[in-house]
Amino acid sequence: MLDLAEKRARALLGRWQTRPLGVVRAAAAAEFARAAGESAPRLVDPAHPAFVVHPMYVVSVLRPEPGADAGELRPDGMYRDEVPGTDGLDVRLMAGGQEVRWADDVRVGDRVEVQRALTAVERKRADLLLLTVDKKYFAERGLLAEVTERFIVR
To answer: Over the stretch 35-81, which tens digit does the pLDDT of each residue have?
Structure first.
């Protein structure tokens, strides 16, 4: 399976894809902040006058409205289409690091889309593949964040 994942990934190198992620909602952003261990009212209470969206919310969990695809999660808990080249394959995925560069604050009501491209495919060992994905998150007003993520495929 790893050979097929590598072949698929190499075929996707450098191809940018765009996907709408939906609208940032205060309740969901507050729930994320609480789950992340935050307790400051400005992060966990949407009624607080200084409420702000936790910056990691958009780059961590924002997805289109649930229910569109009941099988969107893999058995390992990652989204089926999160790692280019691996959808439908019986491989194990792990996050291998993330670098985030912020351009603007995320705001309640932002309609967000992500552009992503697989930028590197490295076979580290016979049983380990390292994939690098660059992502750009946009709201209607412009760029919110740029992210480089690495995924370990086994």
So the answer is: 999 999 999 999 999 999 998 998 886 665 555 555 677 776 667 77
Structure tokens at 26: 């205060």
Measure the CA angle with vertex 128, ends 1 and 72; round to 5°.
55
Tell me the C-alpha distance between 151 and 26, whole Å. Answer: 29
Type of residue at 9:
A
Burial class of residue 6 (count of CB atoms within 10 Å of its CB; 0-12, 13-18, 19+): middle
**Which DSSP symbol is given to 66?**
T
Compute the distance between CA of residue 116 and CA of residue 98 in angstroms, rounded to an integer.
14
Strands (E), 1-141: 17-23, 93-102, 111-125, 128-139
Residue length, the chain? 154
* Dihedral sign from CA coordinates of 112, 77, 5, 94: positive
Model confidence, pTM? 0.85
Cβ pair 96, 104 in contact under 8 A: no
The number of angstroms, rounded, from the C-alpha of 72 to the middle of its chain's C-alpha atoms is 13
